[in-house]
Write a structure and sequence with these properties.
The chain is mostly helical and 540 residues long. It is built from 24 helices and no strands.
């Protein structure tokens, strides 16, 4: 990175990246805890993720509606600095609300969901501001380096989140305490304090001007599609109320909403092909395919882990209780860190042989960090001794793909399918490792999908990027879908695991779709005279 990079501001900004990862990954511990504490079924417990990731969609949608109505990008007008400050303060409100609720002794699950929604609403505004802001904090040519560093810090947050929250809720390995929601009060007071400090530092920091009065092209047909998706998702958020009012089962509500959202996107792509006027970025099939793929990818990344605690409780998969699953949860998120650290190697100007060497070494260095953090926490890491085999398989896939987006996405998607087949047909640590290893598969999907989706869309890159970010919504609806299958287990017996294990057919289908997406998107781009893999290969 150039010396022109504004290190003092950048160091604050990457701390915000840490918060996003820390809170998102800690949901993996908080979900099974809430399920037990509030006596929820699996679908209800997954509403934590629905509130969290749903807020990302609605936050982005609100910004887009305002921009559409005014003809000006509001966030670009007020500046990314203020966008991050406002986002931090919104998250402060959510964190304080959760702290007061948890300490009151009268906490309800509904209030917890509202608090999580508010925290994530702030995160949505922060993330929308942060990516272009990172670019503005130094030379444009080193912007990718800073984004990758931010992603690496985010991954470190996802590694620590489950471990820290586990200690707060259940105590250490040597002194397990009775779990109580009051235990998290200090954590969220602390997080609220950190958000406030970060906001104050941002407020007084001298940062580059990032305002613009640029008029945006309106895309009324795309707006209608986004509004339909927003309306269709609402019954999922309020599935208990809808069931009470209509008698419709929560499973039917979730799968119907999922089917309508995906059908709407596919029909939009076909309609735009016949008449592209009024669709904006969605006139390009690669962009709409990318929206669907981001929806599926975020959904599979979240659902694999958020439902993992339910599987680990079964005797056939270890018989762990909520207080002893943090090491396996952290290994899943740590696997994403392994993949992202490895993916970040490509932005550095190493020779071909050095890159290959680093790709073989960095994943195991990252694994060493995971071991160290777990040892410090007091976790038994003897379970991890065979995991380097999974890492080695991932390394082979990364070397084979050679940074080419289609090849990489296809390779890791196929590996994800294989891992899910193993998880569905075996038990014990073999199945557990198969599930955990998909973290490495998911780790490199976002940039690959994103690069393919915005390729060749010209002046619509900014709008297309906003549409893709909205599709984080997949993390809000696919996990409850898997939870619905788990809830088919009518007998609450740790020895019974049929439907809980069978539920991993959901991520199996997701990975299979992502493999199809890689092939299909390549064909769509080829018709437009574009070949991203060839472009990347020619640059080596």
């Amino acid at each position: 990175m150039s010396q022109q990079t504004k290190w003092s501001q950048f160091s604050v900004l990457i701390s915000v990246f840490f918060f996003w990862g820390f809170v998102a990954a800690s949901n993996s511990i908080f979900i099974p805890f809430c399920k037990k504490f509030f006596q929820l079924d699996q679908i209800q417990s997954q509403l934590i993720g629905s509130a969290f990731y749903g807020a990302y969609f609605y936050g982005s949608l609100i910004l887009y509606i305002v921009a559409y109505a005014s003809g000006t990008d509001l966030l670009n007008k007020i500046g990314y600095k203020k966008g991050i400050i406002y986002g931090l303060m919104i998250s402060v409100v959510g964190a304080l609300a959760l702290a007061f609720i948890s300490g009151s002794g009268n906490a309800t699950f509904g209030l917890v969901l509202v608090s999580f929604f508010i925290i994530a609403l702030g995160f949505s505004l922060q993330q929308t501001s942060a990516q272009p802001f990172v670019i503005a904090l130094g030379p444009e040519e080193t912007g990718t380096h800073r984004l990758n560093m931010g992603g690496s810090v985010n991954s470190f947050g996802t590694l620590l989140g489950p471990l820290v929250v586990s200690v707060i809720l259940f105590g250490s390995i040597t002194s397990v305490q009775e779990a109580s929601i009051e235990n998290i009060q200090e954590l969220y007071f602390f997080l609220a304090g950190l958000f406030i400090i970060a906001a104050i530092i941002f407020a007084y920091a001298k940062l580059p001007k990032t305002t613009s009065d640029e008029k945006l092209e309106k895309s009324p047909k795309a707006m209608i599609v986004l509004l339909i998706i927003g309306l269709v998702f609402l019954p999922v958020l309020f599935s208990d109320l809808v069931k009470e009012a209509t008698g419709i089962s929560k499973s039917l509500i979730i799968f119907s909403s999922l089917a309508i959202i995906l059908t709407t996107l596919f029909v939009s792509m076909l309609s735009a092909k016949n008449n592209p006027e009024g669709w904006g970025a969605m006139a390009y099939p690669q962009l709409v395919l990318g929206m669907i793929a981001i929806f599926i990818y975020v959904g599979v990344e979240v659902t694999i882990d958020n439902n993992f605690g339910a599987l680990l409780k079964k005797n056939a998969f270890g018989g762990y209780d909520e207080s002893h699953i943090s090491h396996l949860i952290s290994l899943y998120w740590g696997s994403l860190m392994i993949g992202r650290w490895t993916g970040a190697i490509s932005v550095f100007n190493f020779s071909k042989s050095m890159k290959k060497f680093m790709v073989m070494v960095v994943p195991f260095v990252a694994f060493g960090v995971i071991l160290l953090v777990n040892i410090i926490k007091g976790n038994d890491v003897s379970d991890f001794l065979m995991y380097p085999i999974c890492i080695a398989i991932g390394v082979i896939a990364f070397i084979y793909a050679n940074e080419q987006p289609v090849k990489l996405l296809l390779s890791v998607s196929v590996l994800g399918v294989i891992a899910m087949v193993v998880a569905l047909t075996t038990t014990g640590m073999v199945a557990n490792f198969a599930i955990i290893s998909t973290g490495m598969c998911c780790s490199v999907m976002w940039p690959a999908i994103f690069a393919l989706a915005v390729n060749g869309i010209g002046k619509y890159q900014s709008q297309g990027s906003a549409f893709l970010i909205m599709m984080i919504l997949g993390g809000a609806i696919i996990p409850p879908g898997q939870g619905a299958i788990i809830d088919l287990e009518s007998v609450n017996d740790p020895g019974v695991h049929t439907f809980t294990q069978l539920s991993y057919v959901v991520p199996l289908v997701c990975f299979a779709y992502l493999a199809w997406h890689a092939v299909q998107t390549k064909a769509v781009l080829k018709k437009q005279g574009l070949d991203v893999d060839a472009q990347v290969a020619s640059g080596h």
